[in-house]
Design a protein that fits this description.
CATH architecture: Roll
Number of helices: 8
CATH superfamily: CBS-domain
Radius of gyration: 20 Å
Structural class: alpha/beta
Strand order of the largest sheet: 1-8-7-6
Largest sheet: 4 strands, mixed
CATH topology: CBS-domain
Length: 198
């Protein structure tokens, strides 16, 4: 015999209602000796902002601005990682090179035309990240000459899943550097200045 359950009272959804987004709280201040996880955006706690490769570059840029991010994960039609699009890709020289080579107008440029493709991406393994320090991550970003690093977890079948990411700008902020620019060399210089004062 089944027990009787009472229905809950429902009310209309109010106009202008939003929804809860996952939030990850990272320490405000870190040192190079802190665990790397203190500066990693954990995608099990924060939703990654993504875009399709066939999206217009201007729409992708507007999405970055709307969400306050400088990186979008580019997904293919099967929701697999096709590449990365950064603010540097959009605001740098890539769009101009594309137009010089292919012709057209700024509005014709698609994400796929300027993104870093999956084949170009190097990733860090979460197992290594869990034992690393903030200093290891800064050194890794400097060695790669990139502003961001993706972190992957590998399943028993060998398939990788992006589970985290590092942003040099975010790390610099947490280290206490005053970031005025998104220029890579300048950001590393700011970090080194903070380290020298420590």
């Amino acid at each position: 015999m089944t027990k009787e359950y009472a229905a809950l009272k429902s009310t209309p959804l109010k106009t202008g209602s939003g929804f809860v987004r996952p939030v990850q709280t990272l320490p405000e201040h870190v040192k190079l000796a802190n665990p790397a996880l203190d500066v990693m955006t954990d995608l099990t706690k924060v939703s990654v902002i993504s875009v399709r490769a066939k999206t217009a570059m201007d729409r992708a840029n507007a999405k970055m601005i709307r969400y306050g991010v400088r990186l979008l994960l580019v997904l293919d039609d099967n929701d697999q990682v096709a590449g990365l699009l950064t603010a540097s890709d959009v605001l740098g020289e890539k769009p101009m090179h594309f137009l010089q080579n292919m012709g057209g107008t700024h509005a014709d440029i698609m994400v796929r035309d300027i993104m870093s493709t999956q084949r170009e991406l190097q990733v860090l393994n979460i197992a290594d990240v869990k034992t690393a320090t903030v200093g290891n991550i800064v050194a890794s970003l400097k060695k790669s000459g990139r502003q961001h690093a993706l972190v992957v977890a590998e399943g028993a079948d060998g398939k990788q899943s992006v589970c985290g990411l590092f942003s040099l700008t975010q790390i610099a902020r947490q280290l206490g550097a005053q970031i005025q620019t998104f220029e890579l060399a300048r950001t590393f210089a700011e970090i080194e200045a903070v380290i020298a004062q420590s």
